[in-house]
Amino acid sequence: MKRTHYSKDITPEMNGNAVIVSGWVHEIRDFGGLAFLILRDRAGLVQVTMPKKKVPKEIVDTVKSLSRESVVSIGGTVKAEAKAPHGYELIPTEIEVLSIADAPLPLDPTGKVPAELDTRLDARFMDIRSPEVTAVFTIRAHMIKAVRDFLSANGCLEIATPKIVATATEGGTALFPISYFDREAFLNQSPQLYKQMMMASGMDRVYEIGPIFRAEEHATRKHLNEATSIDVELSFATHEDAMILLENTIAYVYNHVKENCASQLKVLNIDLQVPKTPFRRVPYTEAIAIAKTSPECAHLELGDDLDTAAEHVIGETVGEHYFIVDWPTNIRAFYSQAYDERPEVCKAFDLMHPRMELSSGAQREHRVDKLTKNLEDRELNPDSFKFYLDSFRYGMPPHAGWGLGAERLLQTMLNLNNVREAVLFPRDRVRITP
Fold first, then answer.
1. Burial 205-216, CB ≥16 within 10 A → b, else e
2. In which element (H, E) is residue 265 found?
3. Distance CA 408, CA 221 (A)
4. Cα distance from N-terminal residue to C-terminal residue, the chain
5. What pTM value is reported for the model?
6. DSSP states of 98-126 as a string?
7. How far apart are CA 1 and CA 98, in angstroms?
8. Is the preceding peptide bond at 382 cis, omega within 30 degrees of 0?
9. Strand, coil or helix: 296
10. Hey, how many other C-beta atoms are within 10 angstroms of the C-beta on 148?
11. Positive or negative CA dihedral for 191, 311, 241, 374?
12. Rounded distance, CA 410 to CA 332, Å?
């Protein structure tokens, strides 16, 4: 039998129509003279109702013999029923068993028997069958689409940069080395250097949505070793221009998800609130002062980076999305442009959710002499960045940009406990399968 409808495409107004649905056996209930099969597809649940006096015995017997999570196609007649999922039930006229599931199951996709996250990730193929987890990844797909639509509509061209590189993006040590024929190479930490080079090419406004790799031995609820980064770079733009595009991107994505994922948000019991723009700009010095109001952060001094505890204190105080701006130059990346009149402060920013950092960006230093000095000041060898510096020697416009963590955006939007819940198959320092 060939499927004619997903569960969500059938309506009570189709009462009496013949349809074919396909999916997994979510649950079977037998009450003697009346039996039910709950079938699950990616769109939701279908209640298949079998009054034993009206449905052929061979269909009822077949259903009763099925193990949970077996795969079936069922043809039948739609009957309006207010108490059933989507307001209808299906009275079956035929059933085709496509695959029998082994027992016992590695976990319970209904969620009635809770499973630890590690157990869920070990059997991720089955964990995703849960309506709640399916909802998360359906929303993720809409989120990425919304980002792509919004950035494209705002004049940005999508690009793809190398993921195998010869040198570190920021000169750090958090790299995954790989064997590249007769030499060593690395998995790229960020498309930063390449998207800046595109500013010299005249492409003017670009974005990329792709994987990044960081060999950091974190074991937290917000860090991954392979993540998806949403990167933007804008020519003839300041850090303020970049922040405006970023906050408007966030608002657009939230609004798109709210309008297009109502059923998924309902499954997750989330009343999504679209953040209001513009987001508050909090100078770094003010952020430090706010953090120091907590005894846990009293040790912080100007020039220190903000740790997780400080982020929480500031987030609770501000209570909504916000930017931390005007960072000390010496704790930001070498390509961040300092204020000419205040070289100790640079035009860098972080976009913060009350729970965590989402994005980092800056106006870039486009003057090759100052950029070279920045590398030397940080004890980085300019010769290692020759391919990058060369793009600045022949006409580089002022530019600014940012990188936004897709998983963190989804984690904070849906209030997920762990960032691994926002990834199909997460990679961290202990997990490399499945």
1. bbbbbbebbbee
2. helix 262-267
3. 10
4. 32
5. 0.95
6. EEPPPSS-SS-TTSSS---HHHHHHTHHH
7. 10
8. no
9. helix
10. 15
11. negative
12. 26
Beta bridge pairs of residue 401 = 233, 362
**Tokens of residue 430, six digits:** 């202990």
Strand partners, 71: 24, 99
Pairwise CA distance, residues 210 & 318, whole Å: 31
Q: How far apart are CA 408 and CA 423, in angstroms?
A: 10
Name the residue among 78, 21, 249 with its Cα closest to residue 153: 249
- Going by their DSSP bridges, the two strands 345-353 and 356-363 should be labelled as antiparallel
The structure tokens listed for 334 are 């070498």
Query: For residues 15 and 79, is the Cβ–Cβ distance under 8 A?
Result: yes
Q: Which residues contact 33 (CB under 8 A, 6 or more apart)?
A: 51, 52, 53
Q: pLDDT 10s digit of each residue in the chain, 434 long?
A: 999 999 999 999 999 999 999 999 999 999 989 999 999 999 999 999 999 999 999 999 999 999 999 999 999 999 999 999 899 999 999 999 999 999 999 999 998 999 999 999 999 999 999 999 999 999 999 999 999 999 999 999 999 999 999 876 665 568 999 999 999 999 999 999 999 999 999 999 999 999 999 998 888 999 999 999 999 999 999 999 999 999 999 999 999 999 999 999 999 999 999 999 999 999 999 999 999 999 999 999 999 999 999 999 999 999 999 999 999 999 999 999 999 999 999 999 999 999 999 999 999 999 999 999 999 999 999 998 999 999 999 999 999 999 999 999 999 999 999 999 999 999 999 999 99
Cα torsion 314, 317, 323, 329: sign: negative
3-state secondary structure of 202: coil
What would the two tokens of residue 172 be? 């750090």
DSSP class of residue 338 equals: B
211 cis-preceded (ω within 30 degrees of 0): no
